[in-house]
Amino acid sequence: MLECGMSKRDKRTLQKCSTVLCKQMVVDEMLIQSLQAEDILTESMAESVMAEQTSQKRSWRLLLLLPKRGPKAFSSFCSALRDTEQQHLYDLLTQCPQTDMSEAHGEVRIRLQPLHGLILFNSFCICFQSLPLPTPEVIPAKRPRTLESMEVSLDTDSPITTPVYPCSQEFYLSHCQQSYKMTSSPRGLALVISNVEFDPCAPDLDLRKGGEVDDEVLRKVFTELDYMVTVQRNLTAQDMRRCIESFTRRPEHRAMDSCVVCLLSHGVEGAVYGTDGKLLQLDWVFGSFDNAHCPLLQNKPKMFFIQACRGEDMDCGVEQIDGPTRTCSPSCEQVDAGREGQSDVSLRQRGDMGRPRIKLPQRSDMICGFASLKGQNICTAAMRNTKRGSWFVQDLNTVLRLKAKDTHLADMLVQVNGRIKEREGHAPGTAHHRCKEMSEFTSSLCKDLFFFPKHETHQQYVPHSD
């Protein structure tokens, strides 16, 4: 007879480990989609799990569903945990000592203390010369936390590496008309500047442990989104300026449909630090890509992602009055996009039929994601995992990989905000314990910005021979 539910043994294992799973398991899109791929969860079940507002509620909802999803549900769940880099939970489930039943043969093998005798089970008579008594369940103790482990143990998740999901032909055809043109291959140039090590003469700027993880994560995800990515590490403020100026002048921008700039460093409100302790103003960065200074990118989307401090205050969080015991328009400082009516309209040459030249605002078609709110400090161990990188880059990477196929960038950054909101630092005995972070973004985009990942077009960039 075909079994329609999980075996009793596996149900007991889930029940015994449910408390640990609810506290430590990360139920994200990758885990859910892994279970969907094995036909363990239906689409409606997946939606019901992800609709829960906190990580613990999502875990509990999933654990309620699994026992009803057939004999393969337990092994598929364990595999999904392993594939999403939650090895400690995989080990917990697969190594959980308990009764081992072989239902297919109608036998039960139990461990008892030495005893001579005879046991009857399900009409089977099984004789033992030596029967062990049941042994208690033993869950391995957590490793002791050192200062280093407190710094890196902020969340159980790590940057996902699942391939960027492709855009379907149907989705492209139904959305390409009302969105930015995104058909060039590559889609554009991407520049990542990552400052991890700082000059000893700048004593207040510590080593950004985990910063090298961030730039590698960004390099990989934007490469998969079909960008030509350049990574520059450990630049002084002046070198950052030269690097950006050179990037804006690259002739390849003419044939491409967008560009990406990522700045990862220490910072203050409105500026980021070079390795020499000097500041590079973000307003200068944005101005370098405006319609006057970078004409090759006029009317093309320009994306910026800033992983840096924006102030001196740490967000300690606020208890939610009517919410669970623990919880796992934004402030915009963007300058006006331009000034109108300051000069007469210049006319086209006679070949242009004498029509007035279209004017553009000084600054438009930009979107910038900030890792923290204005005035919020994120450059602490609690906000940047030394092994997995920063929360902001982790969540940006996850959302881009899972959602870029059918979601425009502004909506994806809203989802990043939602994921950041649920995070909470874990560093008992330090000021960073239970600290919070909140990201935000500003936008002067004028259309929806879809990446249309892996959608093949005929427009191919051919590099110049010079």
UniProtKB/TrEMBL annotation:
The active site is at residues 266, 309. GO terms for molecular function: cysteine-type endopeptidase activity. Keywords: Apoptosis, Hydrolase, Protease, Thiol protease, Zymogen. Its EC number is 3.4.22.55. It catalyses: Strict requirement for an Asp residue at P1, with 316-Asp being essential for proteolytic activity and has a preferred cleavage sequence of Val-Asp-Val-Ala-Asp-|-. Residues 6-96 form the CARD domain. InterPro entries: CARD (IPR001315), Caspase-like_dom_sf (IPR029030), Caspase_cys_AS (IPR033139), Caspase_his_AS (IPR016129), DEATH-like_dom_sf (IPR011029), Pept_C14 (IPR002398), Pept_C14_caspase (IPR011600), Pept_C14_p10 (IPR002138). Residues 356-453 form the Caspase family p10 domain. SUPFAM superfamilies: Caspase-like, DEATH domain. GO terms for biological process: apoptotic process; positive regulation of apoptotic process; proteolysis. Gene3D superfamilies: 3.40.50.1460, Caspase-like (3.30.70.1470), Death Domain, Fas (1.10.533.10). Residues 186-313 form the Caspase family p20 domain. Belongs to the peptidase C14A family. This is Caspase-2. It comes from Periophthalmus magnuspinnatus.
